[in-house]
């Protein structure tokens, strides 16, 4: 019996950024359409699989979440290996989480096996809180100097989440 896969592409996507910016919440909103105000950080890298269709292309996405490991700065090459894309997440209400993306982006470049090709997407999360400490122009400038797309999201209100993952996939599929 044939066991041909039901998808055309298998993509590995990473969520990166400081603790508390909402990486797990973005993942759970995208994969399960749920949100938890009291989400617990668990120890150990975790990932979820989502089958989806974007622009008529069936895809299997494995989306990796640091699950608290970023606190210890112990993400290693295994986490990055084979990843086609990374969502660099900051909290729009906490300026330092944006400033720290410089370090995270450097780490992506250091560890990723295909650093010239890895797609980076900048995501400013928690827009529902209303008070941004990161001027949009500054984020746009950072994004263009790092060859990223920039999007804003609220995992809580389910705004911009599907868009962030769709934009990521589109850019991966358009990257040679
Ligand atoms: P992680 O450490 O980056 O994975 O962040 P979490 O997903 O664990 O979220 C940290 C905290 O921020 C939790 O209390 C979440 O409920 C909250 N949170 C995550 N996303 C949002 C959002 O879009 N809006 C608001 N208001 N809170 C959020």
TrEMBL record:
Protein name: Uncharacterized protein
Top-level division of the source organism's lineage: Eukaryota
Pfam families: Ras
A GO MF term: GTP binding
Entries under Gene3D superfamilies matching the protein: P-loop containing nucleotide triphosphate hydrolases
Coiled-coil ranges from the UniProt annotation: none
Keywords in alphabetical order: GTP-binding, Nucleotide-binding
Alphabetical list of InterPro entries matching this protein: P-loop_NTPase, Rab, Small_GTP-bd, Small_GTPase
